[in-house]
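Chain and conformation:
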Amino acid sequence: MPPTPPSENEYESSVNIQFFLMIMLAMIVGLLLAILVVPTWLPNMAISLTGSDPKVYWYLSRATAFVSLSILWLSMVLGLAITNKMARLWPGAPAAFAVHEYVSLLGLAFALFHALILLGDHYINFTVAQIFIPFSTVDYRPTWIGIGQLGFYIWLIVALSFYLRSSIGQKTWRVLHYLSFTMYVIGLLHGLFGGTDSSTTWAQYYYWISGGSLLFLLVYRIVNSITEKLTVSARRVPQIQ
């Protein structure tokens, strides 16, 4: 009898967290050096970085917000593809799980950058405490900013669960992974009501397409799961001679 393929819970973590953190640190150091050096090479950028009303920090925060949400979308698509068994067709379940884990950590890094870069913006004037403490902001859409902050901490818990799976058990790990759906909804709400690009046509298309595609995969997952259970139950029913 051929061996049974492992479920998505049985794949081992393929991303070394220490190596990943080193890469993230190198990226942050590189970015800081770029902020210091590039204005010297391109004097016009100095106004955007160090002028009385710097714009670049706000633009970077807006851009990385969409990057982070897109990476979260990709991570969830891969996770659903694994549970739907679509990933066995391509690129293979183990590869999909590895990428799923990696992009989840990468998206978390972009989400952190999205928040921290606002410390350089002079219009909102966020403090470090306001960046990390949910609902502590008062001047700019505190409810939706606070919801986004909660989403970040949920994301952090889900990401760390990859490395605590052997300690917390498969069942708890799986329950924690279900928080990803809450996390994505929170990200959408944070973007729709806390972002300044939500009224633009391209942003609305982005939210509809990304959210709709995940909803389709989720519904497919539910229907597929119900169908499999009904099929198994039907096979177990004894045939009346």
Observations:
- Residues 201-236 form the longest helix (36 residues).
- Helices lie at 17-41, 44-50, 56-83, 93-116, 128-132, 142-168, 170-194, 201-236.
- The CA atoms of residues 63 and 114 lie 8 Å apart.
- The mean pLDDT is 79.
